[in-house]
Design brief:
The complex is a heterotrimer. By secondary structure, chain A is an alpha/beta fold. Helices cover 29% and strands 27% of the residues of chain A. Chain A starts with a strand and ends with a helix. In chain A, 54% of the residues are buried. Chain B has one domain: HUPs (Rossmann fold). The chains are: A alpha/beta, B alpha/beta, C alpha+beta.
């Protein structure tokens, strides 16, 4: 048993951006453990994507092809990848920690009587994998044990796609044996709730508000700051769940991923789900009462204090600076 | 319709966490515990489905004896009975091990539907429900926003990334992992608390579970990867310093 | 829902002075059942999610928002805790009611609404109403569909409640009483749907009436502009020829004072958990601020004097909490097999409460003064910010003050506490005189040499408690010898004696609780340290109070002899209280809250 297998994610012929980050993680892991690196692209008609993946430094790309893999299903993807893993017996299987991976990778790991070491942010010699506990308040080192392959998913933004080393690899098609009867779920077409009026992705400046705002009636406090700065107003999940701001303004894993010039998080503690949506921002400012809030882990600038005092003061200062 | 809800007890949100001296886990002495928030939404969804379609809601929890408190609260909110896989050393297991124990208990119940939260607030592996489905040999779907029962099958609304959703149909029995915020949580009522006293909690000694393939070796406070410049002083002076920085260095004002 | 089983005969009211209690004989919060804890958490969750976000609105904009919230809490059962199920209540024990009270006490205004409605607004009908009255009104009160209020005070009759002037006259057809007069300081007054109103029939017979807001002639006046609990409704109620059906007479004609006093007894006790709930909240607020606020390059929580404050806040809260639930448990010990179906159910409950009228007064006085201390230090820890409306501690400071005034001023309660002890002794219900004589004999014999007495944890504190009681008995005996039957008129003296006895009860309550925790095998270090510091502090105030009292009763050699005895009893080996308080503060800061 040898090799690091990176399972890359695509949707209707387009890459999930985290696929490259995961491949980068794969390159680093393969080098560390001194084993060959493989990747797999699962779907129907993925040859072109596989060819693209093969331009990076790795030993082989598996194009896992089958008509039943056209639409994602947990049953189909699990069966296909289980066969691939059985055939090639890698020591490590890496995934991007996407919603889709969360849906099938644990099932796949369970087939090999293993747990998925999910949402990993780093690995050290051993290898020992680092993942976050208590929504980022603590870290834990996880050491794999057991005889089978080690299944790992990688957190968004933990590894940089830019660090990928170029190269050339063979593409090999793998045709799993799948039976339509074993796919028990019937997926419908993905849809969006409503046309999006706000494109946070294009915003240069974002002021984002979280649980710290306490009440819907307080939203204007932060709205005024956004207006003064000429920024788009965004929010963390609880604010949109409560209906205090529309869903389209939500930043995070279930909302939009943004990378503005400046992201100001007001009263946002910084749960992982939020951080993955804004970590790529060029400058991050955090305003929070709790100096231990995880948001300060990613912030460039911070003010520890009551937002109801700090924000009005900021509005005043911004206006002064602009006049 | 018989629904099993797998719930977990976790430290109260925003607890002050202190690490044990052996660095294997946190100190639990002074901590308060509560139901894992996503599991609370799963329980609420189960209760609403029962109210709509009739049947029974069974709360299932693997945890130490202190978890009884959380189980009782699930009963107080309306679960009909509970199964407690009780052991003080469950921390030695990984999620595959825990799911194995849960699957054992679920099998005996032969439920139509198994619900759980999409992840736990403490470990956050986010896979117990999926593994449970695999071990039970039933279909599943994750991060569910809506559940509609249609006879012997269900249609669920699954959350995808970036504001996308998808409907999925599957036959029952099935496992669903529920997204937080999908419904409005009810409070435990005093009458519910009173009635919970006479509801059954079946305490089960865990069967042998597979040894962990993912061993939690060390817990520690993360080192900051980024240097954060904190502006001190009262609100006004801190705001002034920040704005100066944003104007002259970051140049966005 | 029995709380706990007491292994001893139920203690007599006031008997704590004469008997030595064992740790297992007292009820403590550690004895709460799982249900009690669940009730506490459910209430706290409701408060955090439904009340806390609206505090500013309730206080500054629209106090009636609290009514809607209270109705919502009714759906959870929070407004009908002890009401029988057949009248729409939860039919739970007193402990449960106290726990609910403690957990809604995070805001003085909301606590005012809740406590007035569920206490004085509901209890008169629950405990004195006929089956018909209960069936008619209790379900509405249990759900808070109707808000209840209690109208005793008048502009000229506050502490001297029996001096009320509101009149009731029977109508010529004998079907109604016609009420005329004015009530004052009516909590929930502006929004209540149902009032228990006290009036004198024909200007003589002190009687309670159930009066619906919709009866013509009932008119609440303007809201009072109060120092604190500004989000609570307080108005006068004007009664202008209000026709009240005769079947709405509550209890017996001419015996309204029985209702008034009994309801107050329970109200006083309930004020304990309410005040303690407030204390816990302020400790958490102050600890949080101390950990955030920086001065001289470190957080102020690192400073010794801030730590001493936090520790002292925790210590007194611990003692107040121990006293409150100890008395609750004493009452519950009489109600072990209580059932509302028994013909004398209400009587049984009332008698159990009345038995501990003295102890309930101690709880009221002690807990309200602890809260005042805690909010005061809370403001101090906040410095200038504590003086600012934007900080929760400012509101808590103003809200606290009323607790020393309502439910009988602390002055009235100090008089009552010792007055009731003396009455019990007169009735032969408490062998107080015998105990005083026994003590006097003991004092005449030479003091036993304390050679190689027992040592170990709690020994010194146990001796302090024993001596505190002796000082109380000695002072009472000497005061009685001097003033005999006119002692009632010696207010200052009675108050001093109450302070001694109350402190003895407080010391013992904290100490027994620490011992009980230790005996259960749990970590009792914090409780032990809090009890140790308090016992010594309290002994100092006992000694000071006794000196004042003795000097008022004796002179010359007699006084000198008494003072020598006092000195002997009050003596103790000092401990390093600064160090212990630092430990206690560390615990508060570490957990961010009051913890035992």
């Amino acid at each position: 048993m040898s090799g690091v297998l990176v399972v890359m994610e695509q949707q209707a012929g387009a890459w999930h951006r985290m696929s490259w980050e995961t491949l980068a993680a794969g390159q680093q892991l393969a080098e560390q453990v001194g084993q060959p690196l493989y990747s797999a692209v699962v779907g129907q008609g993925v040859a072109a994507l596989a060819g693209e993946a093969a331009t990076k430094k790795l030993d082989k790309v598996h194009a896992v092809e089958h008509a039943l893999l056209k639409d994602y299903t947990a049953d189909g993807f699990t069966a296909a990848l289980a066969q691939l893993i059985q055939a090639h017996a890698p020591s490590y299987v890496l995934f991007p920690h996407t919603y889709q991976v969360r849906d099938f990778a644990p099932k796949l790991a369970a087939r090999f009587a293993a747990s998925l070491i999910s949402d990993v942010v780093a690995f050290h010699a051993g290898p020992v994998f680092v993942r976050q506990l208590f929504q980022g308040k603590l870290n834990a080192d996880i050491r794999p044990a057991g005889a089978g392959p080690v299944f790992v998913s990688v957190q968004a933004g933990a590894f940089r796609a830019e660090s990928l080393v170029e190269g050339a690899a063979r593409v090999e098609t793998f045709a799993p044996r799948l039976d339509a009867a074993e796919i028990r779920t019937k997926p419908h077409e993905p849809f969006r709730e409503a046309a999006r009026a706000v494109d946070l992705g294009a915003a240069e400046l974002i002021v984002s508000v979280g649980r710290g705002i306490k009440e819907k009636d307080n939203i204007p406090v932060v709205e005024e700051l956004a207006k003064a700065m000429g920024a788009e107003l965004a929010a963390s999940r609880p604010i949109c769940d409560n209906g205090w701001l529309p869903m389209e303004r939500q930043v995070g894993s279930s909302g939009q991923t943004v990378s503005p010039k400046m992201y100001m998080a007001v009263g946002i503690s910084g749960a992982i789900q939020h951080l993955v949506g804004m970590k790529g921002s060029k400058t991050i400012v955090a305003i929070n009462k709790d100096s231990n809030a995880p948001i300060f882990e990613v912030a460039d600038y911070g003010i520890v204090g009551d937002l109801f005092e700090v924000v009005p003061a900021l509005v005043e200062e911004v206006k002064k600076a602009k006049s | 319709m018989k629904i099993v809800v797998a719930i977990k007890q976790v430290p109260v949100r925003d607890s002050q966490l202190r690490i044990e001296s052996d660095q294997r886990w946190i100190q639990e002495d002074d901590l308060g515990f509560e139901i894992n928030e996503p599991d609370a939404y799963a329980l609420e969804e189960a209760l609403q489905l029962k109210e709509k379609h009739g049947g029974e809601v069974v709360a299932l929890c693997a945890g130490p004896s202190r978890a009884t408190q959380t189980i009782r609260e699930a009963l107080a909110k309306g679960a009909d009975r509970a199964i407690h896989i009780e052991d003080d050393n469950l921390r030695d297991l990984d999620t595959f091990g825990i799911a194995t124990l849960l699957a054992g208990a679920v099998k005996a119940e032969k439920p139509d539907l198994i619900l759980t939260g999409l992840q736990s607030d403490d470990l956050g592996y986010g896979q117990t429900g999926v593994v449970l489905a695999e071990l039970l040999g039933v279909p599943h779907a994750t991060i569910i926003m809506q559940v509609e029962v249609q006879g012997g099958s269900i249609q669920v609304k699954r959350e995808l990334e970036g504001g996308w959703f998808q409907h999925i149909e599957m036959p029952l029995p099935a496992v669903l992992t529920i997204q937080s915020g999908i419904n409005k949580l009810r409070y435990a009522t005093l009458m519910g608390i009173k009635k919970a006293k006479s509801k059954e909690i079946k305490s089960v000694t865990p069967a042998a579970a597979p040894a962990a393939t993912a061993v939690l070796e060390r817990v520690y406070v993360p080192q900051k990867s980024k240097q954060t410049q904190i502006f001190e002083g009262d609100a006004k002076s801190a705001a002034a310093k920040l704005v100066e920085k944003l104007k002259f260095e970051v140049r966005i004002i | 829902m029995a709380t706990t089983t007491f292994p001893i005969a139920k203690p007599k009211g006031g008997a704590f002075l004469l008997e030595q209690r064992q740790p297992h004989e007292v009820f403590t919060p550690e004895d709460f059942t799982d249900e009690h804890r669940a009730i506490g958490r459910a209430t706290a969750e409701f408060f955090a999610k439904e009340v806390a976000p609206h505090l500013d609105t309730i206080q500054y904009e629209d106090k009636s928002v609290a009514v809607g919230i209270m109705r919502k809490s009714g759906e959870l059962g929070l407004t009908g805790v002890i009401i029988p199920e057949k009248f729409g209540g939860m039919e739970m024990d007193l402990t449960s009611m106290m726990i609910v009270g403690e957990n809604i006490a995070g805001d003085g205004s909301y606590a005012g609404w809740h406590a007035a409605h569920t206490g004085i607004g509901t209890l008169p009908i629950l405990l004195f109403g006929t089956e018909e009255q209960k069936a008619k009104y209790l379900p509405k009160l249990a759900s808070a569909e109707w808000v209840g209020a209690y109208c005793l005070s008048e502009p000229q009759a506050g502490s001297d409640a029996l001096a009320i002037k509101t009149r009731a006259e029977l109508s010529p057809d004998g079907k109604h009483y016609i009420l005329n007069g004015q009530k004052m300081w009516i909590t929930n007054g502006g929004y209540a749907d149902l009032y228990t109103i006290f009036a004198k029939i024909d200007g003589e017979k002190f009687t309670a009436f159930i009066v619906e807001r919709s009866f013509p002639g009932v008119q609440p006046g303007a809201e009072e502009k109060k120092m604190g609990i500004r989000g609570s409704s307080t108005t006068p109620i004007f009664l202008d020829n209000v026709k009240v059906p005769v079947e709405n007479v509550l209890g017996e004609i001419g015996r309204g004072h029985i209702i008034a006093f009994n309801i107050l007894n329970l109200g006083r006790l309930k004020l304990g958990p309410l005040a303690i709930g407030g204390c816990k909240d302020v400790i958490a607020i102050a600890a949080k601020y101390a950990k955030e606020r920086k001065a001289f390059g470190k957080t102020i929580s690192a400073f010794g004097m801030i730590q001493q404050k936090l520790a002292e806040m925790a210590i007194r809260t611990y003692i107040g909490e121990s006293m409150s639930y100890r008395v609750v448990g004493m009452i519950e010990s009489h109600l072990e097999n209580f059932s509302w179906d028994a013909p004398d159910a209400a009587q049984t409950k009332l008698k159990a409460v009345e038995e501990y009228a003295t102890e309930s007064s101690y709880v009221k006085v002690f807990a309200s003064e602890v809260l005042d201390f805690v909010v005061d230090e809370g403001v101090q820890i906040h410095g200038g910010y504590g003086f600012h409306q934007d900080y929760a501690v400012e509101r808590a400071y103003r809200d606290s003050r009323i607790n020393r005034i309502f439910e009988g001023t602390n002055e009235i309660n100090r008089l009552l506490a010792t007055g009731m002890l003396l009455k019990r002794a007169q009735r032969g219900a408490l062998p107080l005189v015998q105990a005083v004589m026994k003590l006097q004999n003991e004092l005449l014999s030479p003091p036993e040499l304390n050679l190689g007495g027992p040592v170990g944890p709690f020994v010194a504190e146990t001796k302090l408690v024993e001596n505190a009681k002796k000082i109380g008995l000695m002072t009472l005996g000497i005061a009685f010898q001097k003033y005999m039957t006119t002692i009632d008129e010696q207010q200052e003296l009675l108050a001093s004696i109450t302070d001694i006895m109350m402190n003895a009860f407080a010391m013992e309550s904290g100490l027994l609780r620490a011992q009980k925790i230790a005996a259960s095998g749990k970590n009792a270090q914090n409780a032990t340290e809090m009890a140790a510091v308090f016992c010594r502090e309290a002994m100092d105030s006992i000694e000071a109070a006794a000196k004042v009292a003795l000097a008022n009763c004796q002179e010359g050699d007699a006084l000198r002899m008494s003072l020598a005895v006092l000195k002997r009893f009050a003596k103790y080996e000092p401990i390093d209280a600064i160090k212990l308080r630092r430990n206690i503060a560390a615990r508060v800061l570490e957990t961010g809250k009051y913890t035992v």
